[in-house]
Amino acid sequence: MPRKRMCRKMAGLPEVKGFRPFDREPFRLPPVIITLDQFEAIRLADYEKLNQEEAAVKMGISRPTFTRLYEEARNRLAEALIEGKSFIIEGGEVSFSSVSFRCSDCKHSFQTSKEEAETTTACPKCKSTQIVSMNDFFLKGCQCRKNWY
């Protein structure tokens, strides 16, 4: 029996939930799902230009695990690009050092520590109480939510 997957560390959330081709009907083909940990692997290796060993340390995983995540993420991105599919970033076994919120009224995004998240009730910019946890928004289906707040 395989051992339980550990949550992978993420520095923060993506700016967007996904992308779709602009010249296709949005729901013609099923979207490709890219998990948050796969997104983080792409971000660290391709955007931050870290080598795989450094990126694995940042995510709190082994280098071979990082390599598998990274390859799977690139395969899924290639599938979306080549086949003209949209892709959605969600799910995965991840943990955050902070909790991200977004105000539904003024669209301001802000972060708090895990401890402060329990008592955060209003947007610091406009004072609206219409705030949404972006961690919930991206973590659809994650089984390790207890580790991040």
Task: Please provide a written account of the structure.
With 149 residues, this protein is of the alpha/beta class. The protein has two domains: 1-12 and 29-96, Arc Repressor Mutant, subunit A, CATH 1.10.10; 98-134, no CATH class. Helices cover 34% and strands 19% of the residues. It is built from five helices and eight strands; from the N terminus they run βββαααββββαβα. The protein has helices at residues 36-47, 52-59, 63-83, 114-117, 134-138; strands spanning 8-10, 18-19, 32-34, 87-89, 94-96, 98-103, 109-113, 131-133. The strands form three sheets. Strands 2-4-3 form a three-stranded mixed beta sheet. Strands 7-6-8 form a three-stranded antiparallel beta sheet.
Task: Output the keywords.
single chain, 149 residues, alpha/beta, Arc Repressor Mutant, subunit A, 2 domains, 3-stranded mixed beta sheet, 3-stranded antiparallel beta sheet, 5 helices, 8 strands, globular, disordered C terminus
What fold name stands as the CATH topology of the largest domain? Arc Repressor Mutant, subunit A
Give helix % range. 25-40%
| Beginning-to-end CA distance, first to last residue | 29 Å
CATH first level of the largest domain: which class?
Mainly Alpha
Total number of distinct structural domains: 2
Shape: globular
Q: Biggest sheet: strands side by side, in what order?
A: 2-4-3
Strand residue percentage:
15-25%
Classification by helices and strands = alpha/beta
Radius of gyration: 17 Å
Number of helices: 5
Report the CATH architecture of the largest domain: Orthogonal Bundle
The parts where pLDDT drops under 50 for at least 5 residues are: 141-149
The helix/strand order is EEEHHHEEEEHEH
The strand count comes to 8
Largest sheet: 3 strands, mixed
